[in-house]
UniProtKB/TrEMBL annotation:
GO terms for biological process: methylation. Keywords: Methyltransferase, S-adenosyl-L-methionine, Transferase. It comes from the Bacteria. This is Class I SAM-dependent methyltransferase. Residues 22-250 form the Polyketide synthase-like methyltransferase domain. InterPro entries: Erg6_SMT_methyltransf, MeTfrase_dom, Methyltransf_11, SAM-dependent_MTases_sf. It holds the Pfam family Methyltransf_11. GO terms for molecular function: methyltransferase activity. The keyword Flavoprotein does not apply.
């Protein structure tokens, strides 16, 4: 691995370590909510859990399945999946702060032993070939420096016939160079067109079973997140420093504008051929 690759990996981890407080605003999650239509009044945190369930259902978890959650964040999706199944779940993150919070959450949940969290690099997984029945990459591929390498490693650790479910960003409207720089500065790889993710997964040697474009279902997440941070500004500032929270709030409108108006989301379910 090159020095540049190490630097990039460390940079993403440092950003997540520094901003780990923001995860608690989302109840231990780092992903979108799901609303069925404009009339859906589901509260934000419930909508986030709904999206976890929608994605999780596509894994088809069975008792005894081994699931790897690549880019598990602070652990809430893996814990929720553990509560809804008897699967054996391992989550990996490259953020020490997220790992700490994930382990605290799983201890509180009573699922310690069934759900575990580890530091790991998705581009160089530490597990033997064919170790897992299912793999989840829930809004984590957007931070990959080499998406093909991530998928190659996922394919390696999946058993033949094993299932991969991932979510990814998609370009719903043309991005300007400024838009792309804004996303990059926020450690989000500027997305390609919706079918780019389909092609990437297929070219990595998977058979795509389902492709779902859902930008209209998740778009309310962006203003809802900003609003939750604003509402909790004073409490967050007291706990983490006013300078940090105010800087975050100042930077967010530009990012949120790009995400809300030009970026959508896709869900892909695929399997490794036998």
């Amino acid at each position: 691995m090159s020095t540049r690759e190490l630097t990039e990996i460390d940079e993403v981890a440092e950003i997540y370590d520094d901003g780990a407080w923001a995860v608690e605003v989302l109840g231990g999650n780092i992903h979108f909510g799901w609303w069925e239509d404009d009339d859906d009044r589901t509260p934000f945190l419930e909508a986030i859990n709904r999206f976890t369930d929608i994605v999780g259902d596509r894994l088809g978890l069975r008792p005894g399945d081994r699931l790897l959650d690549v880019g598990c964040g602070a652990g809430e999706p893996a814990i929720r999946l553990g509560q809804r199944s008897d699967a054996d779940i391992t989550g990996i993150t490259n953020s020490a702060e997220h790992l700490k919070r994930a382990r605290e959450r799983v201890n509180e949940s009573g699922l310690r032993g069934q759900v575990r969290f580890e530091l790991g690099d998705a581009a160089a997984l530490s597990y033997p070939d064919a170790s897992f029945d299912k793999v989840l990459a829930f809004e984590s591929l957007v931070h990959a420096q080499d998406r093909r390498q991530w998928l190659a490693e996922i394919r390696r650790v999946l058993k033949p016939g094993g299932r991969l479910v991932l979510t990814d960003l998609a370009e719903d409207a043309p991005l300007t160079e400024r838009d792309r720089q804004i996303l990059t500065d926020f450690t989000l790889a500027p997305p390609g067109p919706p079918m780019a993710a389909f092609d990437l997964v297929r070219d990595a040697g998977f058979v795509v079973d389902e492709f779902l474009s859902c930008g209209d279902k998740i778009s309310r997440s962006f203003p809802a997140y900003h609003e939750r941070v604003q509402q909790r500004r004073d409490t967050l500032a007291a706990a983490h420093g006013a300078e940090k929270i105010d800087a975050f709030l100042a930077e967010m409108p530009a990012v949120l504008d790009v995400l809300r108006t030009k970026v959508g989301c896709v869900v892909i379910a695929a399997h490794k051929p036998r």
